[in-house]
Amino acid sequence: MGEFELLARLRERLAQPSPRVMVGLGDDAAVTVPGGATATSVDAIIDGVHFRRETAPLASIGRKALAAGLSDLAAMGAEPGEAYVILGVPPDLDEEGCLEVFAGIEELADRTGTSLAGGDVTRAPVLTIAITAVGHAADPESFITRAGAGPDHTVVVTGELGGAAAGLRLLSEPALADRLDAATAADLRARQLEPRPRLAEGRELGLAGARAMIDISDGLGADAGHLGDESGVRVEIDLELAPLQAGVAEVAAAAGEDRLEFAAGEGEDYELLACLPADGVEAARESLAALGCRLTVIGRCAAGEGVLLSGPGNREIQARGFDQLS
Amino acid sequence: MGEFELLARLRERLAQPSPRVMVGLGDDAAVTVPGGATATSVDAIIDGVHFRRETAPLASIGRKALAAGLSDLAAMGAEPGEAYVILGVPPDLDEEGCLEVFAGIEELADRTGTSLAGGDVTRAPVLTIAITAVGHAADPESFITRAGAGPDHTVVVTGELGGAAAGLRLLSEPALADRLDAATAADLRARQLEPRPRLAEGRELGLAGARAMIDISDGLGADAGHLGDESGVRVEIDLELAPLQAGVAEVAAAAGEDRLEFAAGEGEDYELLACLPADGVEAARESLAALGCRLTVIGRCAAGEGVLLSGPGNREIQARGFDQLS
Questions:
Q1: What is the pLDDT of residue B21?
Q2: Which of A76, A106, A186, A202 has the fewest Cβ atoms surrounding its Cβ within 10 A?
Q3: Contact residues, chain B, for A322 at CB < 8 Å
Q4: Which of A133, A139, A126, A141 is nearest to A112 (CA)?
Q5: A23 interfacial to chain B (CB closer than 8 Å)
Q6: Does the pLDDT of residue B316 top 60, yes or no?
Q7: Which ipTM score applies to this complex?
Q8: Which residues of A14-46 are buried (b: 16+ CB within 10 A; e: fewer)?
Q9: How close does chain B come to A160, measured CA to CA in Å?
């Protein structure tokens, strides 16, 4: 298999569904007419760092790579637009395998209305996927950054937490699922393997008045810290309020770990953490309910800096460094 | 060293020099207001595939990564705008090393008026740099794609060829430089380590009437083939006309290889190959001369398909497959 042949095959398969993309795959660069403002995010996932080929189907690795990029757009309240893919192909991945990875990317792109506008294929020591995701809005002020939280804002989170961490444990130690029913265990594994970018939820939160937003990729504690740093506020979170995915407590117990650590200390849940004035919470909750997504108040912003994670019995939980290259 | 600390340091160092970039490093995504049309290219360079850390200073690896991305923009005739960087950090590269890589990227970004608008840092098995380069034009028709060549066009190339291939040989076998003067050998090594994107030249070629353009990253033969395929023409190149960089013939002879193969069969010279009507060549040549860049007629387009590379004595040189993942 050669790079050009693979690119030619991909090109055949990739439609050019967007009126915004004038020139797609097959030239030196893709040509688009963005209009308005764009939000651009770059992300890479690498075998052995962000996933393991032994435990993840190739299509789901592709989906996860794109999902992580789209999740950044969700956290901006952006409309997804184009994605660009760099595929690093290890010696033991054949053409069929490359196409499986792309099929996963393509499937999520189709589902989210994202145009695959360009890409590159190269040799690499291990499977590597780098995604550039470009989202759109009418003007730059429509995007929700990390910087707009005020000291009186309410802190909310979409969906449920801890599932990605629990799913990761189940993938490496299947016996931890012994006390779970099959569907719950499958949902946890899927949470790790198949994250869903909260695109519609991000836009609704923006419309409902969210002033600052971030996606939870590094972990609730770390990401709350990023948001607080950018906004110049202290983020106080009561972990007893954090909505845990079904089965997280059981897996944590079976693994001898802290369920709150699963929810707050590990990343990849790809939920959205948002700050908004208290009087906007109810409307936001209703908007998200219409999308089938719960929204939970988990804390508030205060004057100051840093993150306070409080747990059961009001003990303070030290937000760990989380500062590992990942 | 952690990801966040490194990102924070980078952020301190990276100015936000463009009025187009509203939100740069430090949020989920960068926010820009592009206006007009954009050209977007993604590229990765990986240790052991595109460079070797043993033979390349870290700053030059950074510059080369960005240069490859900017060269794609040059081939579109685009104005460089923003670049986004993913740095994959191997276990044996410390923070100082990461900053050296970024210093190289930053240096070339400054020199070319490119804003570093976003990035990501992750662990990786070997040093990996993925670049997303975004260029601009007033409208999509102002970009020069690979698809506009006609069967009566003249084929021109900027600068000189073969230097990157010769430089690569000198880096791995220093003794091959024995018959060269030091400056010539240094120029050849620099050609491999420090490619220059032909940004101003690409814009001038567009203004002078180039109808199709590509940068020579895969090799003259392969890239002429890409251009011919997209334009639906046959590209006929007389390799005796190809401008060789000083010292290329000597290194090829010392290595027992074909100097024309250096010029036509290997990539990374990052010159521009363009097609234009014959009556525009002289004006294009003058425009490029004003930039200090030579422009050489090396062939013509004809009806048909494929690439014909003819060499000394009119023997036909089979365009090699060139179809290796690289």
A1: 81
A2: A186
A3: 4
A4: A133
A5: yes
A6: no
A7: 0.91
A8: beeebebbbbbbbbbbbbbebbebbbbbbbbbb
A9: 20
Listed in sequence order, the residues at least 6 apart from B321 whose beta carbon sits closer than 8 Å to its beta carbon are A2
What are the helix (H) ranges across B42-114? 58-75, 95-112
A chain contacts of residue B31, beta-carbon cutoff 8 Å: 37-39, 76, 140, 143, 145
Structure tokens at B295: 């422009």
Helix (H, G, I), strand (E, B) or coil at B85: strand
The C-alpha angle B114, B119, B124, rounded to 5 degrees, equals: 125
Alpha helices in B113-241 (DSSP H): 163-172, 182-193, 199-207, 220-231
Using DSSP's 3-state secondary structure scheme, residue A85 falls into strand
DSSP string, B248-271: HHHHHHHHT--HHHHHHT------
> B117 to chain A: nearest residue by CA?
A40
Span B66-85, pLDDT tens digits: 999 999 999 999 999 999 99
Which residues partner with A297 through β-bridges?
Answer: A156
Among B22, B31, B325, whose Cβ lies nearest the Cβ of A123? B325
Question: Per the structure block, which two tokens stand in for B275?
Answer: 């097609």
Residue A296 corresponds to which tokens in the numbers above? 């939970």
At B164-201, the pLDDT tens digits run 999 999 999 999 999 899 999 999 999 999 999 999 99
Is A324 touching B (CB cutoff 8 A)?
Answer: yes
- B310: DSSP letter: E
Look at residue A15 in the predicted model and tell me its pLDDT: 56
| Nearest chain A Cα distance for residue B222, angstroms | 10
Go through chain B and tell me how many residues it has: 326
Residues 6+ apart with CB under 8 A from A197: A67, A68, A70, A71, A73, A74, A112, A215, A270
Distance, CA of B309 to chain centre: 22
- Do A309 and A316 form a contact (C-beta atoms < 8 A)? yes
- Name residue B245's amino acid: Q
Does B48 contact A324 at a Cβ distance shorter than 8 Å? no
Structure-derived torsion over alpha carbons of residues A225, A228, A233, A239, reported in degrees to the nearest 10: -50
Identify the sign of the CA torsion A138, A144, A146, A149: positive
A 252-291 residues with CB < 8 A to B: none
Looking at chain B, which residue has its C-alpha nearest residue A72? Answer: B28
Cβ–Cβ below 8 Å for B46 and A145: no
Measure the CA–CA gap between B159 and B119, rounded to whole angstroms: 32
Which of B3, B10, B27 best tests the A interface by mutation, with the highest count of A CBs <10 A? B27
* Helices vs. strands in chain B: H and E counts, helices first: 10, 13
pLDDT of residue B320: 41
Interatomic CA distance for residues B201 and B207, integer angstroms: 10
Chain A positions in Cβ-Cβ contact with residue B37 (cut-off 8 Å): 22, 31-34
With residue A121 as reference, give the H or E element that holds it. strand A115-123
Closest CA to A84 of A29, A137, A124: A29
User: What would the mean pLDDT of A114-132 be, rounded to a whole number?
Assistant: 94
